[in-house]
């Protein structure tokens, strides 16, 4: 473990997509690569934090120097997060599936001469909101993400209020930005008292700046 301003701080980072099974061989997922969450974990480790990295099936490998908990589903991610608490800081960068298949099949669903399967959905737990609203044992700083395609600041501020996290890292993921799946990001950091627009930066540099903001916040507290 490296020395640094986050030495002795225990930080949870969620990252990647979740996979929600339809049957043993099929699942529903999303296009999250896990790149931004991985970069954040790496930046926090570089400043000396003890990072627990709860990750869905991502495209990029987890950074070295973290404790990895690999999960598939949103429910497993919530369980892993709850087993990881208490922490000083929690950063929720995962793209958690909003829905799971209500009763996934224990055996592979077969083609049945022209009869189509019907999938029924159930809502997944909101991990960020659950942790943000904990009455005891809540992390001192809870950071969520908001991927928006329009009215980014207004939607992200509403999300912050609704979920009751401390900060929201908002970004515009309209297709023309190339951010989703790309190596750069342009984010707006939303706190209760400030809105900071950051320039377009690599996801690594975005992560480093966020880690610096976290250091400053912990020094203030
Ligand atoms: O509501 P929305 O999915 O846009 O919120 C995004 C933020 O909430 C991200 O920080 C994401 O990690 C978190 N989230 C979560 N659990 C969910 C859905 C989103 O932790 N089920």
Structure description:
- The chain is α/β, with parallel strands linked by helices.
- It has a single domain (10-220), classed as 3-Layer(aba) Sandwich (Rossmann fold).
- Helices cover 27% and strands 26% of the residues.
- It has helices at 35-46, 74-84, 127-132, 152-163, 203-220; strands at residues 10-15, 20-23, 26-28, 50-55, 67-70, 89-92, 99-101, 121-123, 141-148, 167-172, 184-185, 187-190, 195-197, 201-202.
- The chain has an eight-stranded mixed beta sheet, sandwiched between helices. A two-stranded antiparallel sheet has the order 2-3.
- Helix 1 (35-46) crosses helix 5.
- The radius of gyration is 18 Å and the shape is globular.
- It starts with 9 loop residues before the first strand and ends with a helix.
- 37% of the residues are buried.
- The mean pLDDT is 95.
- Bound molecules: cytidine-5'-monophosphate.
- Residues 14, 74, 92, 94, 96, 124-128, 144-146 line the site of cytidine-5'-monophosphate (C5P).
CATH domain class: Alpha Beta
Total DSSP E strands: 14
The pLDDT mean sits at 95
CATH architecture: 3-Layer(aba) Sandwich
CATH-defined superfamily: CoaB-like
How much helical structure, as a percent, in the residues? 25-40%
Largest sheet: 8 strands, mixed
Q: State the strand order across the main sheet.
A: 5-4-1-6-9-10-12-13
User: What is the chain-wise order of helices and strands?
Assistant: EEEHEEHEEEHEHEEEEEH
Q: How would you describe the oligomerization state of the chains in this entry? A: single chain
Predict the CATH topology.
Rossmann fold
Broad shape: globular
Helix count, per DSSP? 5
Hetero compounds: cytidine-5'-monophosphate
Low-confidence stretches: none
The share of residues in extended strands comes to: 25-35%
The N- to C-terminal Cα distance equals 24 Å
Task: Output the radius of gyration.
Answer: 18 Å
Question: How many structural domains does the protein architecture include?
Answer: 1
Structural class: alpha/beta
